[in-house]
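Input:
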Amino acid sequence: MSGFGFTCLLLALAVCAYGIGASLYGVRSGRMEYADSGRRSVYALAGILSVAVLVLEIAFLRSDFAFNTVADTSSRTTPGLYKAAAIWSSQEGSLLVWAWLMSLWSTLALFLTRKHIRDVAAYATAIMLGFGAFFVFLMVVYANPFATTNPAPAEGVGLDPLLRFPTMMIHPPMLYSGYTLCTIPLAFGMGALLARRVDADWIRAIRRFALAAWMFLGAGILLGALWSYSELGWGGYWGWDAVENAALLPWLTGTAFLHSLMIQEKRGMLKVWNVSLALATGTLAIMGTFLVRSGVLNSIHAFGGQTLGVPFVILIAALISGSIYLVVSRREMLRTEHRLDSLLSREAMFLLNNIVLVGLVFVILWGTYFPLISEAITGQEASVGPPWFDRYTVPLALVLVLLSGIGPVITWRRATLANARRNFLVPLACALFVLVVLVLGGVDSKPLALAMFCCAAFALGSAGQEFFRGARARRAMAGEAPPLALVALVRRNRRRYGGYVVHIGMAVLFIGVAASSSFQHANELSLSPGQSARVGSYDVHYVRPTATITPKYDQAHTGSTLSLGAVLNVTKSGRHVATLEPSEGFYSSGEASQGTVGNLIGGQPVSHIGMDVGLTRNVWTAIQPDIETGPLKRIVTVGNKTLPPEDGIIGIAYLARAYLKHPPPAQFNLIVSPLVMWIWVGGLIVFGGALIAIWPAPSVVRRRVAARSRARALHGLARA
Amino acid sequence: MNPSRKRTVRLVVALTTAVVLASALIYTSFSAASPALTPTQLLREAQPGRSYQLTGTVAKGSVHREGAVLDFSVEDRAGGAAVALAYTGIVPDPFHEGREVIVTVEKQGDRYVGERNSLITKCPSKYKTAPSSENQNA
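Output:
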């Protein structure tokens, strides 16, 4: 099977080489049948890589430890669903998934554009196959996912317990889909420049893919944040880690691109800017992929190997220099068709939004790569922490949220005073109302959070007003009931109203971020059963310890050998609020050197959070039981000396019983975060809005169906 | 003012603003940054009252808890020099003996104190457990 998998990779490399040659020859010579053949090479690549992924997936599900990747990231005790997801938890497997997803998305993009902008698409095909060839080459030369060991080990290392969390099943595919989709606007942007066709056609062809890239990348980032909040035992969701930032950067340039492309479509402006943003987004996506694999920056997320740094640097250098050359050499063609009429217009607001987003990108890029910059300039590696990032990103985020409220209601070309009075009254009233209520309610100790609540209220008021006016107009015209009018309104103009839904979601998300980061209460302390602690306005009482043994009875279904925890009673002003059961799972390390008992719990311990989720606040609790001292450690030591390997679990049972009978003080982390749930709700609204905007409008679908019927009828007539 | 001159003025103002803001950003990044040092470098260069990012691996047998204070030593990746420090605050799950960590420390007298909640552990890896020779990136 491994030989078959590797053959698939070699075949994929050959298909990429052929497709690049055919596409370029076809478009340069005008023999488009070769360009079509190049396009079909992408379909073939998708097919071949699908087979390769299937081969590796089967190896994971069968626990075939002859495959090094399987032995390193899975085991027989790894629960089934996590075995299936372990494919993207290794360097090699993740490269395969990256190349596979890229081939699938490229296939879809080229299939949908097969009858339009064929010259641009031919160049884009060559570029996409170039990316495919690069990733397949990495697997063939540096990180073969089908490498084997003979004889195969009897058991694998197992999936890292930290990754045994439901959202981790979909977080990497979402992120990789986002990254790979980012390469499509880049490929078509470069294709447009190479073909010297820089009108809005290429933008119309890839607009949905740019939006899908933005949506998937955003969903991936948010799922990663949810994993961090729910699994990592520190109660935070964002730490300005290098790898987190790397995913955020293309998302920000993608956001800018999605706004500015509207100006090119409507007014033929910002051509240089748009193509530069498309190229930058794709390049930043590759840089994000590189950052995880190169080891150049300290990150909690980096992969083990450092061998892939040089090939990635070469690719990124080629992308940057190629992009600059193409934009500079085609600058005459990229001249704007119109000038900005007024600074008080929708175009100007979009431009300002773009400047703020690019400013954010510059800040985050500088902060992320600062260790390298600092070392190059001063010879001393140094890094900037979250306070530095917050100092710049918080004001910029405030401006962005405010602009998301101004953009939808300001008119194109030039706004007048009458327009301003008509459109800004409701949003301003909403912001003012929130300001008064919060100040009167005493929530004025954090001015930046207060400013964010007001800006978000302004944005919500602005979007709400647009929905209300649109639905009212439909009611007046068609006499529909309000809910029906609203649905019809969105259905008929999905792109516009989907965008407004996204604005609503972002405002809700930022309310959650501002509230949870500014008004959080946290307490870390040691408690014994019977003791209590206060966090914010809540009292947390440690009622009794809990313990379960063997993976079979692991309450979190993550395959832990031993799980030690506590029952906590949470009250507010003497009233019962919730009973929480945080625990810590201990996993087998498989290292015989740790002893017969020690190896069963010597792996990575992982917190299983006890959380009471509410609309207004989350009570979040984590426990770190101390098994390294006192009688508990003695049980492990004695068990290691006296018990044979097959009876190691008896030592674990003794350990659990001793913990229940004489629980040592445990370290607790207690956090009350207001409105944190609205971050995830906001994310869901954003996701929904993006889906609405991506979905083809009914009229478009009807046109396509009619065109297909006409084509079939003509074909039938021709044959007759 | 004619439109061409107006555009030039706008461009100059915008570029000047961008340069001023970028300069402020660059200046503050250098002044706010904490040097990243290995235990050997820290023992040689640390000055009292200044923050440093200490990177290395948690020394085997060095982890002890006294109430809310976690005492442990960070040693060079290749072994050798070790810095003992007292830390309070959140301890991430992956913290373990032999694990690569990054912690912000300050020299107070002749001892090192970890900044509250500054301890981060490098991923047990995103993904796979790296071979011991490559542990620095795991």
